[in-house]
Amino acid sequence: MRQFLFDDKNIQWRQLDGIEHLWFRVLDVDAVSRAVQILFKFAAGQTIVLHRHKSVNKTFVIQGEHKIYHADGRLKETRPTGSYTVSPPSDDPHREGGGDGQDAVVIFTVYDNDGVAYEILDDALTIVATLGYQEFAALRDAP
């Protein structure tokens, strides 16, 4: 079988202030379904900020390995290229990152849950920021 490589050179990646090792591109913000489609790129061998998913997330790994870590840093799950996952809302804090040697590119479909899709946490599990439908719409429209 022929192997294909994902080429992201034409994607205008952006970063969120204070969140290292993560780039994103908001692809669609659907006002009817209140769903957001986002490409996330996780740096190889790194993890991002501690957070919770407060709404349903559907993911498809386009490139690399998408790794999920418990709050204490232990590896919880590895999702290889081609993996499709549906995750319900959860109060379980975790980190995510790219596998060794290659950045992970993952498309997320995130559904609105009363305005909060993600809670960003500090190491004491205090909520420091939230992201939801409105914030993603603003990020899509920002210059």
Short description:
This protein has 143 residues and is mainly β. It has one helix at 133-141; strands at 22-30, 35-42, 51-53, 57-63, 66-70, 75-79, 84-87, 94-98, 104-111, 118-121, 127-131.
Can you describe what's shown?
- It contains one helix and eleven strands.
- It has one helix at residues 133-141; strands spanning 22-30, 35-42, 51-53, 57-63, 66-70, 75-79, 84-87, 94-98, 104-111, 118-121, 127-131.
- With 143 residues, the chain is mainly beta.
- A hairpin with a 5-residue loop joins strand 10 (118-121) and strand 11.
- The model has no long low-confidence stretch (mean pLDDT 94).
- The chain is globular.
- It has one domain (22-141): Sandwich (Jelly Rolls), CATH 2.60.120.10.
Secondary-structure blueprint:
Layout: E1 22-30, E2 35-42, E3 51-53, E4 57-63, E5 66-70, E6 75-79, E7 84-87, E8 94-98, E9 104-111, E10 118-121, E11 127-131, H1 133-141
Antiparallel strand pairs: 1-2, 2-9, 3-10, 4-7, 4-9, 5-6, 5-8, 10-11
Strand tally is 11
In percent terms, what proportion of residues is strand? 35-45%
CATH architecture: Sandwich
Question: Share of helix among residues?
Answer: under 10%
What is the C-alpha radius of gyration, as a whole number of Å? 15 Å
Please, how many helices?
Answer: 1
What would the average pLDDT be, to the nearest integer? 94
Main beta-sheet annotation? 5 strands, antiparallel
- CATH superfamily descriptor: Jelly Rolls
CATH secondary-structure class: Mainly Beta
Q: pLDDT under 50 segments (min length 5)?
A: none
CATH topology: Jelly Rolls
Based on secondary structure, the structural category is mainly beta
Strand order of the largest sheet: 1-2-9-4-7
- Give the SSE order as H and E letters: EEEEEEEEEEEH
